[in-house]
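One-letter codes give the sequence; each number marks local geometry. A record appears below:


***
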Amino acid sequence: MSRMPKLPLAVTMGEPAGIGGDILLKAWVEHGGALPPFFVIDEPARLIGLARRLGLEVPVREITTPAEARDTFHQALPVLAQSLATSVIPGSPDPRNAPAVIASIDRAVALTLGGEAAGVVTLPISKHILHQGGFTHPGHTEYLAELAQKAGHPAVAPIMMLSCDAVKVIPVTVHLSLRDAIVSLTSEAIVTAGRQVAQSLRDFFARPNPRLAVAALNPHGGENGDMGREEIDIIAPAVAQLQAEGIDAFGPTPADTLFHPEARDGYDACLCMYHDQALIPIKTIDFHHGVNVTLGLPFIRTSPDHGTAFGIAGSGKANPSSFVAALRQAAEMVIRHERAVLAAERAAAHTPS
């Protein structure tokens, strides 16, 4: 990247028994010189031991403030200390460490909202393990929204977008069973997602006139109601509303024809009706470079588009590419935001009073 954000990115611990530490350390070793500066909120001793286990030479330097990270980053991995309740065995998660995982997220968000970090990049968590430790949210997205609301941003309506160079997809319903997703799907949810995605594509992805595809829910788009009426009763009215608001949206289009190369050339992002309808295509098209971006928060947040992979944790087999892409995506979004703020300030300075 030719330009870096003014502030470092805050990286959360993620599930310490998963591959988060592996990809963090490998990314710093393999790509450090080309990455935006960041610091990780984690236990320094754990990372030192993990680097030794992986055979990686990573000098770990404990910092006390995010401001130290930018000068430290190219000589050592900056770590803002977060103690764990018990030692970590790769591949064997322990719910006793759940409070530290959650605290890492809390601190990253607080530091970003407080103007000490440029954005948040979250390493993968295990929802099941966190739930055993008392976590009550379906996932990262919902928890980040609550943190933003508690910090004084009550109108937050976060939208999950999965992004790679080839495609951007948005699940309108997210962490629900397929049965519950179908029941909960509404025109209002589709319109809300479409508005946020269109605005974010303009603000952060250099798409001044974004085009949105909207996927059908049922096979063959419902066959005019013969295979379900959701397209007629829910999705088509939402598309019409988006169009009425000046958003270039089209659909509902059968999902099985939306993701081949020629189809993808016709839109900037695709609204999908449920989780796997969105995630299967992006993970098939570019598994190692997908990035999870949360739109609609008062801060920038990205994450690798994969899970904890307990089966290979601590083995050195984990691929850091998605984490690297998440760091770069966050930095690009920060830079575009900084440019937009600067342009607005300049315009205001030249506006006659």
Q: What stands out?
A: The mean pLDDT is 93. The longest strand covers residues 248-253.
